[in-house]
Design goal:
The chain is α+β, with helices and mostly antiparallel strands. The protein has two domains: 2-107, Arc Repressor Mutant, subunit A, CATH 1.10.10.2910; 151-253, Beta-Lactamase. 38% of the residues lie in helices and 22% in strands. The strands form two sheets. A five-stranded antiparallel beta sheet has the order 5-4-8-7-6. A three-stranded mixed beta sheet has the order 1-3-2. A hairpin with a 2-residue loop joins strand 7 (234-244) and strand 8. Helix 1 packs parallel to helix 5. The longest helix is centred in the middle third of the chain and has 20 residues, at 88-107. The structure holds zinc ion (ZN). Residues 65, 69, 96, 99 line the site of zinc ion. Zinc ion binds at residues 65, 69, 96, 99.
Length: 267
């Protein structure tokens, strides 16, 4: 699916709504109120329907998702492999997941991510830039960026949430409506492949941590710091905390373990 989507996006003239449709011959796009549904692809009538009632960045993700449905339906090999391996609800679920993978690959092409990493490093700032440029939610950007990061980095989106509100329904970015008692917590996190540590959603950020200062001052902070694991363990890491829209986009660069002999005793 990712290859299909990547090949598709490479042939497009751009990533705006009109350009995104340019690779689908004879398929039209319609915006209309659709109640609870985000969108649909109707292969019989060659039309993609998008719910006009949801916010624009969600419409955009839905468009890329429905384009992925069309790409999948046009690929007999992949389609028959899926029908051989799954059936019923499980098949439907796998197809939906694959179309989200396709959507992420369409909106956040490898070239865009590679360009941002080469300019700003695997950092909190890159995460913020990616979400802004691709016009996707911070958590969508987080997963796509983590997957394509080679260095040992843990990314996180941190935001204020109501104390004890973990069971409440968060929105797409994992935010909950601010109320009087607010705690800065990890809303979403993902690490580069090969990193064996993870930061669980809901992990509180201590008031004394630089991430809290970045949120309070609205200034980016880069410095030696630590990963505030829920267990209380503080793992040393180089922090980049980039405040953006009432949240902080965070990267923790973990120290690279020495590949050779153990360090000699200092004189
Ligand atoms: Zn779908």
């Amino acid at each position: 699916m990712r290859e299909l989507a990547t090949t598709y996006v490479q042939a497009l003239p751009g990533l705006d709504t009109h350009s995104l449709m340019a690779g689908l011959d004879g398929v039209t796009l319609r915006f209309l109120p659709m109640g609870d549904r985000d969108g649909a692809y109707d292969p019989e009538h060659h039309v993609i329907l998008i719910n006009s009632g949801v916010r624009p960045s969600r419409q955009r993700f839905t468009l890329a998702h429905e384009i992925s449905h069309a790409l999948l339906l046009g690929n007999d090999d992949l389609l028959s492999d899926l029908h051989d391996a799954y059936e019923g609800d499980r098949l439907e679920g796998v197809i939906e997941t694959l179309c989200n993978v396709g959507a992420a690959a369409i909106l956040m092409p490898d070239t865009l991510i590679a360009d941002l990493i080469s300019r700003f490093g695997p950092s909190g700032r890159t995460l913020a830039e990616l979400a802004r440029r691709a016009d996707v939610s911070a958590s969508s950007a987080l997963y796509a960026l983590a997957e394509r990061t080679e260095a040992p980095v843990i990314y996180a989106v941190c935001a204020l949430s109501r104390a004890g509100a973990e069971e409440r329904e968060p929105d797409e970015d994992g935010m909950v409506a601010p109320t009087s008692t607010k705690v800065l917590t990890v809303r979403a996190s993902s690490a580069a492949p090969g990193v064996k540590y993870s930061l669980r959603p809901g992990t509180p950020i201590p008031d004394s941590h630089p991430i809290a200062a970045a949120l309070e001052t609205n200034f980016p902070i880069s410095q030696e710091s630590y990963v505030p694991f829920r267990s209380g363990r503080k793992m040393p890491a180089y922090l980049d905390a980039f405040p953006e829209r009432q949240a902080v986009m965070v990267s923790f660069a973990l120290p690279v373990a020495p590949a050779s002999a153990p360090k000699k005793e200092e004189d």
